[in-house]
Amino acid sequence: MSRDRGRKAGLRIVAVAVIVVCAVLGASKLKLEQKYRSLQQHEKELTEQIQDEKDRAEEIEEYGVYIKTKKFIKDLANTVMGLVDPDSVIIKEKE
Known about the structure:
mainly alpha, 95 residues, 81% helix, 2 helices
């Protein structure tokens, strides 16, 4: 009988140990899933930022090409200095 009690006690200890290990693994799994979702959201945000920066870089490149044109110089002279082309028609308002 002593052996039976020893075996039953041993089985109980093993069963408790297995339950504890399963509980710890389950808790770890939940934490990892939460962290995974958080990292996926962060990755999505970073992907959007990368796309925004690519769009911005493209706009800057287009502007760089634009500032090398005569149209830019004319627009700048017109807006900043009020200059116009000699063949332009100017309509003034009555005061």
